[in-house]
Design a protein that fits this description.
This protein is mainly beta and 330 residues long. The chain contains one helix and 32 strands. The strands form five sheets. It has a 15-stranded parallel sheet that branches. Strands 2, 4, 6, 7, 9, 12, 15 and 18 form an eight-stranded parallel sheet that branches. The longest helix has 4 residues. The protein starts with 7 loop residues before the first strand and ends with a strand.
């Protein structure tokens, strides 16, 4: 745990750390090994600089509530490495972790089932509350094939130098994800109570190595577009829980696979659809859309027998349908 100056210092200085519990290793030895770090003693405005060539982190803890902003930064020649299959960060309510560390490597060479979990404080006076994790690296941060999991009431903000090669985002337990750049991921799963704020940017889902992905039953807000490439089948909500689009404005474009919208899907006036390529848009009930376009070749919009699709011009320059066909659900 950190015992140095409450305003920060260099990671490599052994005097800044003490061992919690017992260990057969010295502080100096642990700094070169896969180690968990408790930074709860740091206060608002603290800056800790990684000056180790390869910082091995398997967990990180900020258990003090209302600690303000804690910044972890690095020199241009250093980066952190996640050596474990599952890495967990705990951040208490009222605390923001400004993450400026770099991560350009592919974990430790093994990218199988890697997870970076950003979650609430599990100990201390703010147990079960969640803070803010701002991923804002100085050079680059690639979550190559790992599953980024915001959960436990935390807010994860993806900064302008974040990248996500074949990675998934899975959200749990009232977490929030906010974009500060256009982001491309393999898949997204928004579970009940979670929210994605596009914040004026676009989210592209490329399918990666998975056959299916889902928006789940959470909330999408802000202005921004969604693009689907690859994959096979998606859904937004289910037949018992509707997907929340309150405050959302944007266009959803599909190039492959099938998007299923349940009967309780609420079509906001500022949501448009474009169905291209072999993609299909399955609507389980009658629907009113302000804009439906596309150049689909084999897919297109599909509705149940006896249902009605109404196109309006509300919220758009024109409310036209330029797709190839309108098909009944099989």
């Amino acid at each position: 745990e950190w015992v140095g100056d409450v305003k920060g210092g260099n990671w490599s200085e052994t005097a800044n750390w003490q061992i919690q519990g017992s260990s057969s290793y010295s502080v100096s030895e642990l700094l070169s090994k896969s180690t968990g770090y408790d930074l709860s003693a740091l206060t608002d405005g603290a800056v800790v600089t990684n000056d180790l060539a390869n910082l091995l982190i398997y967990s990180l803890h900020l258990y003090t509530p209302n600690a303000g902003t804690i910044t972890l930064t690095s020199t241009n020649k250093t980066e952190n490495v996640f050596p474990n299959e599952q890495v967990e960060f705990n951040i208490a309510d009222g605390t923001t972790l400004e993450w400026q560390l770099n991560h350009s490597n592919k974990w430790d060479g093994n990218v199988t089932k890697k997870k970076l979990i950003i979650m609430n404080a599990k100990e201390g006076p703010a147990k079960d509350t969640g803070g803010v994790f701002h991923m804002n690296p100085k050079i680059s941060y690639d979550t190559y094939q790992q599953d980024l999991q915001p959960c436990g009431k935390t807010t994860v903000i993806l900064g302008e130098k974040f990248s996500s090669s074949l990675s998934f985002i899975t959200m749990w337990n009232n977490a929030t994800l906010k974009l500060e750049k256009n982001v491309t991921v393999a898949g997204v799963q928004i579970n009940n109570g979670c929210k994605v704020d596009l914040n004026g940017f676009n989210l592209t889902i490329c399918g990666g190595e998975a056959g299916a992905t889902s928006l789940g039953v959470g909330q999408l807000t802000g202005k921004g577009n969604l693009f689907w490439y690859g994959g096979e089948e998606w859904s937004a909500g289910n037949d018992t829980t509707a997907f929340n689009l309150t405050g959302y404005e944007g266009l959803w474009t599909f190039y492959e696979g099938q998007m299923t919208l349940p009967a309780n899907f609420a079509y906001p006036s500022a949501l448009g659809f474009a169905v291209d390529g072999a993609a299909a848009l399955m609507m389980k009930s009658s629907a009113t859309l302000y804009n439906l376009t596309g150049k689909g070749t084999t897919g297109g919009p599909r509705l149940p027998d006896g249902s009605t699709l109404t196109l309006t011009a509300n919220g758009a320059a024109n409310g036209t349908f330029s797709g190839r066909r309108l098909a009944s659900a099989e």
